[in-house]
Amino acid sequence: MFDRMLVDGPTTSNWDLLDYSANFSAGFADSLTFHGTDAIRWYAGWNDGIDHASGAYIGGEMIEAAGEIAVTGGGAALRHSVLVLGEGAARRAIGKASRAQARNILQAGPDHAAHHINTLFGHPAIKGGRGPRTSFFPSGGLPQSIHNMPLNLAPVTAGQHAFLHARAYGAELIVFYNTVSPAIASRIVTNIIIGFASPLEAPST
């Protein structure tokens, strides 16, 4: 499509697609940032091409909110599936068997651990820091064929393992605090209020 635009020049349908994409992306970003990106575009004078009343813009807002609800529900379902496995010794036994199978799949050597990119149950304690934490998206309650599939495994050293868990835990906190019910509700309410208000106009130059 873009090759044809270079040859033939922009057409009405080309511009329609670009306009739709710009409005959808703006709506998605504005909903995610509580309309902070809308303010940035306004101050920068980039809001002229954004139609806040368009279906694409409103659709972007709705898709972003729906995605957050889906992420929240998916995380809750995964945590529930882990609870069904039991506590303490029962869960440790399942984890030990899953990690042994993962090492065999990866053919990991003695100096390497099998790291689950989507964690089995949680994140280990950090020496001198926080204690162990349950994962927001644990995969241990799913069949081994899923959480031990090669795409979810990586052979890592002990140092790499600790770093990857720390990074994953930090990312999960960001997701968690952005998808808790009050945050989602606030975004939806903000979208509705701003939808009824006059859209920001670009400052005069």
What is the topological layout?
Blueprint: H1 2-8, H2 12-32, H3 36-44, H4 55-84, H5 89-106, E1 113-116, E2 122-123, E3 133-134, H6 144-147, E4 153-156, H7 158-179, H8 181-196
Antiparallel strand pairs: 1-4, 2-3
Helix pairs in contact: 2-4, 4-8
Characterization of this structure:
The protein is mainly alpha-helical. It starts with a helix and ends in a 9-residue tail after the last helix. Helix 2 crosses helix 4 (55-84). Strands 1-4 form a two-stranded antiparallel sheet. The protein has a two-stranded antiparallel ribbon with strand order 2-3. The chain is elongated and about 60 Å long. The protein has a domain at 73-181. It is 62% helix and 6% strand. The protein has helices spanning 2-8, 12-32, 36-44, 55-84, 89-106, 144-147, 158-179, 181-196; strands spanning 113-116, 122-123, 133-134, 153-156. It has eight helices and four strands; from the N terminus they run H-H-H-H-H-E-E-E-H-E-H-H.
Characteristic key phrases:
two-stranded antiparallel sheet, 205 residues, disordered N terminus, mainly alpha, 8 helices, elongated, two-stranded antiparallel ribbon
Percentage of residues in strands: 5-15%
Query: Rg, please?
Result: 23 Å
Largest sheet: 2 strands, antiparallel
Shape: elongated
Category by helix and strand content:
mainly alpha
Helical content, roughly?
55-70%
N→C terminal distance? 35 Å
Query: H/E element string?
Result: HHHHHEEEHEHH
Strand order of the largest sheet: 1-4
Unreliable stretches (pLDDT < 50, length at least 5) are 1-7
Helical segment tally? Answer: 8
Mean pLDDT: 81
Number of strands: 4
